[in-house]
Design brief:
about 80 residues, alpha+beta, two-stranded antiparallel sheet
């Protein structure tokens, strides 16, 4: 959660009021689904979608990014049985 929320703040659009939506629901298989959504700059999924959760992938010009946050988030979720 920390990585997703801090990314939402870090990559917010200064021209609009930042918003972060956090939601939980049960899917058809009674599994809990957690969603985090924001109105920041986003990632071009057509261009980068296949690389988004890979190690050392950066999709913007921010110099402090290392490309590990989304990779680690996905790895942690999967290690706990999530997807």
């Amino acid at each position: 959660m920390y990585n997703l929320i801090s990314n939402a703040i870090k990559y917010s659009n200064p021209l609009v009021t930042s918003k972060i939506w956090i939601d939980t629901r049960l899917n058809r298989d009674s599994q809990i689904v957690l969603s985090v959504k924001d109105n920041g700059f986003g990632i071009d999924m057509e261009k980068y979608g296949k690389r988004i959760f890979k190690l050392s992938q950066v999709f913007h010009q921010n110099t402090d990014s290392k490309g590990v946050g989304l990779y680690l988030t996905k790895t942690q979720i999967e290690s706990l049985g999530g997807e």
